[in-house]
Amino acid sequence: MTDTMAFWIVQGLHGLQFSMLLFLLSVGLTVIFGLLHFVNLAHGALYALGAFVSFSAVKLTGSYWAGFLLAPVAVAIAGMLLYLGLIKRMRNAGPMNQVLITFGLIFVFLDIFRIFWGDIALGVEEPALFSGPIEFWGIKYSAYRLFVIGLGIFVLGVLHLILSRTQIGAMIRAGVDNEHMAACLGINVEKVFFIVFCVGCALAGLAGAVAAPILSVYPGMGTEILIPALIVVVIGGLGSLKGAMAGSLLVGFIQTFGAVIAPQIASVLVYVLLAGVLIFRPAGLFPARS
Amino acid sequence: MFEKLKPLSVRATLAACVMAAGVGGVNAGETKVGLLLPYVGVYAALGNEIDAGFTLALEESGMAGDFVIVREDTEVKPPVGLAKARKLVLEDEVDVIVGIVSSGVLGAVRDFVDGAQVPLIVANAGNNDATGSRCSKYVARVSFSNAQINRPMGQWLYDSGVRTAYTMASDYAAGHQTMAAFSEAFIAAGGEIVGAEFTPFGKTKDFGPYLSKASAAKPDAIYVFYAGGEAISFVKQYASLGIKGDIPLYGSGFLTSPLYVAAEGPAAEGVVTGAHYAPTLDIPENNAFKAAFIAKTGKAPSEFAVQGYDAGRVLVEAVKSGASGREAIATAMSKVAYTGPRGALSIDPATNNVVQNIYVYETVAGDNGLTQKLIGQIDNVADAVNGCQF
Amino acid sequence: MFHQTKLKTFVLLAILVGLIIYTMNGSYFGRELVVEVAILAILAISVDMVSGYGGMVSLCHGAIFGLGAYAYAAVNVLMGGPPALAVVAAIVAAFTFGFAVGAVTSRTRGIFFIMATLAFGQMIYVMIFDSKSLGGDDGMWGLTRLDLSAIGVNLESGVQFAIFSVLCIGLTYVVAALILRSAFGRTFSGIHENEDRMRALGTPVWKFKALAFGLSGSLAGIAGALAAQHTMFVSPELVIWTFSGEVLIVVILGGLGTLVGPVLGAVVMVFLKHEISNITTYWHMIIGILLIITVMAGGRGIYGGLEQYLARRAAKAAPASGAKTDA
Amino acid sequence: MLKVANLCKSFGSLVVTDDVSLHLEKGERRVVLGPNGAGKTTLFNLLAGEIAPSSGDVFIDGKSITSLPVEARAHIGLSRSYQKNNLFEGLTIGENLSLAAAVAMGLSGSLLRDTHNDPELRKVVTDVAAQVGLKDMLEMQVANVSYGNRRQLEVGLALANGPKVLLMDEPTSGVGPSMISAFHGLLKTLPRELTVLIIEHDMDLAFDVADSITVLNYGKVVFEGTPDETRASSLVSEIYLGDWDDDA
Question: CB under 8 Å, gap of 24 or more: what pairs does B216-220 form?
Answer without folding.
Answer: B216/A3, B216/A7, B217/B166, B218/B194, B218/B247, B219/B164, B219/B165, B219/B166, B219/B194, B219/B195, B219/B247, B220/B161, B220/B162, B220/B163, B220/B164, B220/B165, B220/B247, B220/B248
